[in-house]
Amino acid sequence: xxxxxxxxxxxxxxxxxxxxxxxxxxxxxxxxxxxxxxxxxxxxxxxxxxxxxxxxxxxxxxxxxxxxxxxxxxxxxxxxxxxxxxxxxxxxxxxxxxxxxxxxxxxxxxxxxxxxxxxxxxxxxxxxxxxxxxxxxxxxxxxxxxxxxxxxxxxxxxxxxxxxxxxxxxxxxxxxxxxxxxxxxxxxxxxxxxxxxxxxxxxxxxxxxxxxxxxxxxxxxxxxxxxxxxxxxxxxxxxxxxxxxxxxxxxxxxxxxxxxxxxxxxxxxxxxxxxxxxxxxxxxxxxxxxxxxxxxxxxxxxxxxxxxxxxxxxxxxxxxxxxxxxxxxxxxxxxxxxxxxxxxxxxxxxxxxxxxxxxxxxxxxxxxxxxxxxxxxxxxxxxxxxxxxxxxxxxxxxxxxxxxxxxxxxxxxxxxxxxxxxxxxxxxxxxxxxxxxxxxxxx
Length: 443
Hints:
By secondary structure, the protein is an alpha/beta fold. The chain has 3 domains: about 1-105, 2-Layer Sandwich (Gyrase A, domain 2); about 125-205 and about 375-435, Four Helix Bundle (Hemerythrin (Met), subunit A); about 210-370, Rossmann fold, CATH 3.40.50. It is built from 16 helices and 12 strands. It has a 6-stranded mixed beta sheet. It has a 6-stranded mixed beta sheet with strand order 8-9-7-10-11-12, with helices on both faces. Helix 6 (about 150-175) packs antiparallel against helix 15.
C-alpha cells in the first residue's frame, strides 16, 4: 500500500509539500507528470497534471528518494507545490485515483520509518515533541532525545542485562558445571549497578515530563479575590469571565503560556468558600483537586479581607506563592501572620507590582528545571517501564541469592523486556497506535 498526505501546515502558504511513500511512489510521479522519474535527491521542476488528462494542476518541484535512502525507508516522493487549498485538494484527488494509494493516517510516515528500522521508538516520540514544541526549552529537550542520548543509555543498560542473562541461562543448561567465581560475582555486581543507574534516572523530579507537558500552576483562593483577572492579565487576553458576582468561575479554566521560555499550564479555579449550591460545590472540589496536583500554587487573597486560614492555609506549602491582590485598597499595614508567608502585593486594576510576581514565578520555574541537562525520561510510558524493570531486578536479586536460577532468569528476561519496550527493541505493537496517533497527518 502507498500512502500520501500534506506534510506542511494546512491553509494558505507560499509552498505546500505533499509526501508519497510506498511501492507506487514512482508510478505516482509518472502518472502526474507524464515523464520518467527524476534523479534521486535532485530538485526537478515539472508540470503536474490531473490523472489521464492534460489539465494542469500546478507547476512545482519534485524530489525523488528511492528506498532505502528515504525518511520512511520505502520509495518516497515529495511534491513542492503552491500552498492553496485548491491546488492541494486537486493533487490529493488525482493521487487517490491511482490504485493502491490511500491518504495517510496521523503519524503513519514516522511509523513506517520506525518499522523499517530508520529510527527507534524514542526518536519517533521526540520527532512528535519537536513538531509540537512551543517554547525554546521544549525544542532543546526534543533535540537532545533525537540525538540518541536516552536511547544509547537504555540500550547500554539492556545489553548489560542480556549479558548476565546468558550467564544465568548457562548455569541452568549446565547445572553440573561450575561457572567461574568471577562470572557469578559479576552477575550480582552488574545487576546491582543497573538497578542503581535506573534508580538515579527515576530520581529526576519528573522534569522531562514537566517540560514536555507544561509546568502546572493553579490559581486558588476565595471568591472575588481576582483570580480570573490575574489569569487574563498573565495571558494578555480574556481567557476567563470576570464579574463582581461571587462564584462566577465554576469550572477549571486552563491556558498554555511561555514564561521566560518555560512552558506552563495555568489553571483558574472556582473560589473556595462554604456553599450550598451543588454546582459550585463541585467546582470547589475540582479547585482543591487541581491545587493538589499542581507543581505551583498561586494563593490569591484580597487586601481588604486578608483572611488566610482554614483550607487555604492548609494548601500553602513550599511550592506556593501568596498573592495579595487589590493592594491599592490597603489602608493599614499587613498583619504579621500574613507577612510571615512573604506575600507579593499586587493590584491588577492598577497594573501594580505584576512584574514582581512574574519574577517570583520565573525563580520557581528555574529551580524546578535545574536538572534539565540530565533528562532521560520525557513520558510516563518510559517511567512505568523503568519502574517495572526495577521490580523485576529486585525479584531477580532475591532468587539469584537463593540459587533459584530458573525463576531468576525469568525475572531478568522481564527486566530486559521493559528496557527494550522503551526504545522499541521488542514487540511493542500494543503501544504504537497511542504514540503515532499524537502526530499530525503527513508526518
